[in-house]
């Protein structure tokens, strides 16, 4: 643990609470295993001592801003998480002046589970070039020295090269395990519909059956709703209790959007995502 | 003297069982440990901590058709769900067996749930004592134990040369092979899981309904259904009728009190509209409503929710917090 970084976060949080500038702080504290981190809400200056930051702080806390739209909150964000703030600003889900952003320079996070801390950085961190949050009011830590180590999309390319039948078999097996717990949706900062299509009754887009066809439809629509919007925090994959490799779907579409529209979600609060715009000159090769 | 079964005997017996009935056993699938029907012994995981999902899904499947309505020339017929073959579940941990026993309360109490009752009657449980307690385990505080034979038909306890066999019920006795040897092997001391004192929990809960604690705890909760779906005692479900070419199927699927839509009424009113109210319901059902109705706390200490919760809402910590709050409000 970088005690200087934690001190910076705690001091900033204390100032904000003592001055009444914010109602609460959304950050991280030590989990019940004494080893990893969990989200933490501090409302009293005395509680800021519980705030931590280390390589187990994998959660994207931005989702919680959607529950706190009417209260000014401060939030601790890693560079990847900060892209979710831009996404929500762009989609007018949160107001910039209702959030105080405590950004942290990020040296990468490790795979964690309860009582288990991985030794190596998460795959997404190994290809991440974003060392500094894209939006912040206060920046904690020191710029880490780090270069991308792994090839971006190597697993996607591998998947693309497989025959259709093999891809199909792969996903049929994984979606067969899905229990429709909706943890992937609940944790996603981009999933905020007041009524999700999965629960809509009229029309009923997807039934309540927890069965291969319904699971597949649920996952397909969930993924497509995030095209050009997924910011790559990979929370959906982390929280899945049956280990469905959802990042393969999200990143496949991220790659497509990058190639077709030269767009990456959440890098700027102003730039509209491709599917929120329509330009007459966009032909997408359909005219031929 | 104890009844003994060598490892080879166990394999032969399981092979015999799977010829006559459906045999469900823990299997390793893509990093998960799931109870699945097996057709060869090599697919069975014998050495495991506990499964990713509890065996409750055999009795209350994630999805099932309760009955269908078929329409023909001028008549309508109600076709109940088909009853499966006899089944045996091998490798049930004592905590999970207790979970099934707890689910029996709501499902078998009159008027009983027919499909659940049929499956329960036609399934035998072969338990496997735990050789070690995992960090998330707390079964002994919830009225079970790593070697608790109470809720299985047969309990196997691994020893050096095989297994000590305890035939617990008549159903279990009938299932065992003839001529098992008796031996000197003694039952090993069970491992000691973490203690989570829960004395006085039920009465303490009566005074804690309006505590701000619930909304504060719910800050962190994502309101997914992970905790409920991995829980051996959570049994809530949703039902819907699906038409199919003039016929109708009544489908039942898992659902949980954490879903925003779970208590939404026709017209849109939701009596549990806030996150705190929904999270509180989870713990009130487990720690007050269920025990008031059926005596036992609806938790068996398997620790699955502790491990699986994406944001570390740890029931052991909640119990301890509530004990402290109860002591404060009671004094």
Based on CA inertia axes, which overall geometry of chain B fits? globular
Q: How would a textbook summarize the main sheet of chain A? A: 5 strands, mixed
Question: How many distinct beta strands of chain B?
Answer: 12
How does the overall form of chain A come out from the CA principal axes? Answer: globular
Terminal CA distance of chain A: 57 Å
Q: Which oligomeric state applies?
A: heterodimer
Give a written overview of the molecule.
The complex is a heterodimer of chains A (288) and B (331). Chain A is of the alpha/beta class. Chain A folds into 2 domains: 3-140, no CATH class; 154-276, no CATH class. In chain A, 32% of the residues lie in helices and 13% in strands. Chain A is built from 9 helices and 7 strands, in the order αβββαβββαβαααααα. In chain A, the strands form 2 sheets. Chain A has a 5-stranded mixed beta sheet with strand order 2-1-3-4-7. In chain A, strand 3 (73-77), helix 2 (79-90) and strand 4 (99-104) form a beta-alpha-beta unit. Chain B has 11 helices and 12 strands. Chain B has 2 domains: 2-183, no CATH class; 201-330, no CATH class. Chain B is globular and about 65 Å long. In chain B, the strands form 2 sheets. In chain B, strands 3-2-6-7-8-9-1-10 form an 8-stranded mixed beta sheet. In chain B, strands 5-4-12-11 form a 4-stranded antiparallel beta sheet, with no helix packed on it. In chain B, strand 4 and strand 5 (76-80) form a beta hairpin. Chain B has 331 residues and is of the alpha+beta class. In chain B, helix 7 (213-220) crosses helix 9. Chain A binds chain B through residues 31-33, 36, 38-41, 59, 63-64, 67, 113-115, 173-174, 177, 179-183, 185-187, 199, 207-211, 235, 238-239, 241-243, and chain B through 29-32, 34, 52-53, 62-63, 135-136, 216, 219-220, 222-226, 228-230, 238, 240, 242, 251, 253-255, 259-261, 275, 306-312, 314, 316-317.
